[in-house]
Amino acid sequence: MEMVDPQTMRDTLRFWASGVAVVTAGDSQRRAGMTVSAFNSLSLEPPLVLVCLFKDTTTAQLVTEIKHFAISILGEEHAYLSDRFAGRISLQENEDRFDGVSTTTATTGSPILTDALAWLDCRIHKVHDGSTHWIMCGEVLAAGHGGSDAPLIYYDRNYRSLMLETEHT
What we know:
The protein is mainly beta. 15% of the residues lie in helices and 40% in strands.
């Protein structure tokens, strides 16, 4: 059976609209973070989410080592955070992706982006091998949201805005 080549796969999946989030991990010595679009709710009981992390990244390596992570869901005004944690913005020497970015922590100590639309703080529940990626199932230990702003959407290789309907009374 013939497989689809990577470029055809990219060209096809660009038509799947998704939200954008930053996965972070950290302890008292280190921190790492990366932009992801492969993130989903998995279960409410127990509260589980899944995120896919490219194996050859500092973030994936740190998450597998310390066994916890946070997910910051980005709002439509956060394209710059998405670009920063995706590595699309050049950093100065000795600067890391968190420099100038306000963070907080919840239960695990992983950094949570303060301006995020919503966030989840998780510990590893299970990890599955997804070829080039780790499929991380996280048990949600804490969660919160900052309001009713619209999410950042990624579609057809660009950021998009979601038009929210107003309620009629």
